[in-house]
UniProtKB/TrEMBL annotation:
Name this polypeptide is given: FAM86 N-terminal domain-containing protein
Top-level taxon of origin: Eukaryota
InterPro entries linked to this entry: Methyltransf_16, SAM-dependent_MTases_sf
Residue stretches spanning the membrane: none
Origin species: Urochloa decumbens
A Pfam family recorded for this sequence: Methyltransf_16
């Protein structure tokens, strides 16, 4: 019993730390802090916050304002509940408030550094519940101000969990992502052994940020003809791709086995262009796909296949996609339930995986 309780306590503290590194909203951090303290933010939890949210245990790129906000919320909650705030937490908060440091990296508010840790789905105890993969990302803090391409969306998390849950689908395959944003999906594809990973986006600032994120994760983004890229196992190509302007000849050299996309059905105006690009990528003259599964299962296919994760925020936009896909002789099957991924992100309380739909798209013969 004692060992089980200690294991649970350790797991709750691990979730708290990983949630902080992932940049979860302060309200979610406080909820996990309460859970770790058995219902309140105890002195033990406060010490854990200090040890793991400050100093050498935190990457310099972590947003200082974010950490200060969390400490302020913790102090307020503990005080309101007539609890004891440890002196060290008061001192750390006061030092932060009085600091006149102008370090542009620490005080940068338009972008936020995040570490998304995917936990192994099978474990016997906390020590063996290893972190499968850690993605280090620079993400925009201005999601509602038009900087959507550099934001982290739930469909991207869902698609990443799907890749990690079914690695054999993607291993040794050429994978091509549309609207790659911060590049999280590409990092997971590389982790499971995709033979080639091509990430694309039609926004130049998003593409620049994506390349920086690949470098943060030690992934090679050299030019295609570079010997370094040819010899490296950690190879990812980041390409500019405008759905409106790209031609079939532009895409002919890729011939991907798998096409992916996360939250790319956001604008009815762009839907016809998206469907056109999907049709071109799914059409592979003279080649047969190698993606296989058990007879009759959702992964069996004789040609290229696309997996699109999306949150249906606007029914009209989704219906527009469904009609355009049908007109283009694309089969779009909802496999959300039959291919539900494992929960690799139990510490990310803000991530509502139930809102995401997963579509498997193929070209009808």
């Amino acid at each position: 019993m004692a060992d089980a309780a200690a294991q649970e306590d350790a797991e709750q503290l691990l979730h708290l730390k990983l949630a902080f590194l992932a940049g979860e909203p302060p309200a979610c951090i406080l909820a996990l802090a309460r859970k770790a303290g058995g219902g309140s933010i105890t002195s033990h939890v406060q010490n854990f916050l200090l040890e793991n949210f400050t100093g050498t245990n935190v990457d310099r790129r972590q947003n200082s304002t974010y950490t200060t906000t969390i400490f302020k919320r913790v102090i307020s909650e503990v005080e309101l509940s007539s609890g004891v705030v440890i002196d060290e937490l008061y001192e750390e908060f006061a030092q932060r408030m009085l600091s006149k440091a102008k370090d542009s990296l620490l005080n940068r508010t338009d972008y936020m550094y995040k570490e998304i840790s995917f936990l192994s789905s099978t474990y016997d105890n906390v020590s063996s519940r290893l972190i499968s993969v850690v993605a280090r990302l620079s993400c925009s803090s201005n999601m509602l101000e038009g900087d959507t391409g550099c934001s982290l969306w739930p469909s991207s998390l869902f698609l990443s969990e799907f890749i990690l849950s079914y690695p054999k689908i993607f291993s040794t395959k050429c994978c091509f992502e549309l609207g790659s944003g911060v590049g999280l999906v590409g990092i997971c594809l590389n982790y499971v052994g995709a033979s080639k990973v091509i990430l694309t986006d039609g926004d130049t600032s998003t593409l620049a940020n994506m390349k920086e994120n690949m470098e943060l994760n030690n992934l090679c983004i050299e030019q295609e003809d570079s010997e370094v890229l040819k010899e490296s196992k950690n190879k990812v190509e980041c390409k500019y791709l405008s759905w409106e302007e790209v031609s079939e000849s532009d895409l002919r050299g890729y011939q991907p086995d798998i096409i992916l996309g996360a939250d790319i059905m956001y604008d009815p105006v762009s839907v016809p262009h998206l469907v056109r690009v999907l049709s071109m990528l799914l059409r592979r003259d003279g080649r047969q796909g190698e993606t296989k599964g058990k007879s009759g299962d959702e992964f069996e296919t004789e040609g290229p296949v696309a997996y699109i994760a999306t949150v249906i925020r606007n029914a009209e936009t989704f219906n527009c996609f469904a009609k355009s896909a049908a007109d283009a002789r694309l089969s779009a099957i909802n496999i959300t339930s039959s291919a539900a991924p494992s929960d690799f992100l139990p510490h990310m309380l803000s991530y509502d995986r139930s809102s995401v739909q997963l579509l498997k798209i193929t070209l009808l013969s």
